[in-house]
What does this fold into?
Amino acid sequence: MLPVRHNFLNLFRYGGGGYAEKSIRQQFNRKINFSSWFEGSMNGLKGKECIAAFDPSYIRKSGKKTYGKDRFWSGKDQRAKPGLEIGCLALVDVGDSTAYSIEAVQTPAGMKSQLVAHYVGIIKKNLRAVLCYTKYLAVDGYFMKKTFIDPVLLLRLEVITRMRPDANLLYLYNGPQNPGRGRKRSYAGKVNVKKIDKRKWKRCYKDEDMEGFELKVWCVALKRIVKVIHLESKARKGYVILLSTDTELQGEKIIRYYQLRFQIEFLIRDAKQYTGLEECQARSETKLYNHFNLSLMTVSLMKYSCWANLPDKNETPFSMRSIKIWFYNKYLTETIFSNLGLDLKYNKIRKLYGRCLNIGAMAA
It folds into this structure.
């Protein structure tokens, strides 16, 4: 509910005197097991259709002594900038189209040649938590690399991602083979991704703006058979190529799962805007780790406890802003009512209390 920057001093100021600023700083030195916290809090998702999503995010941070300070890619600015980076692993509820944070791990400085291995390590560390819910991992086009996909497949996860517009794909040959010695024919020519031969492809998706076709092909970059979705935009006359390492997954589901990957970006956006993801004063590795994960987990817990169980959630979009305002109003109202000695057992006082809680609330 903090209406100011999320740092140790303001936590003390709004904490009602429970802990001194120094005590809060010291407590942040104790590393929290957020993976276990996630498993204990989100058990209700186990019976639902889910996918995992992973995305690195740039974090603004100044200071020469901050752990992990380096130059990292900022998607918003489309260039590398000095600051920090976290790799965020989340679980996406397919039915509710929303993401919940599992764990965010900071990228150490000087990892340019080992970034992919570091990202795989984050997924491997949380593998047990992920496999309890799903076997599918959705990532953006940066991870369309053999060095990422092969290790993830060894972890028993299937990858859904986006390919380059000039992807090197080969049709599989299913015709009769020549008798005799020699290597059998495996491929039936290269796929022209700019203009596919729709006689060989199966339509799997169609709406007012997009039309999708699916086919099993040989991916030269990955050296394996994959299922590819060729999505064509009618309005812009462009196309997008999606890939799934699970060749039996329906094309429509591949499209749906990749679209849901963006929910992790909305999770990070809400954490930056409302729970102080970029406002940490700390410089040490453990304090930064706790701050990043507390910020992301706060948004996740608010979604799960305040929105996910609403009977009309399809008509009521999740709004972290409204939840934050509600808790701030509650803090102010209870403080004022307590100081005035107002008793909530009276109907008029209760009605006034209820009206105070929803001042300024709005939908997302």
Notes: The first strand starts at residue 50 and ends at 59. DSSP finds eleven helices and twelve strands in the chain. Residues 160-248 form one domain. Residues 113 and 147 are 12 Å apart (CA to CA).
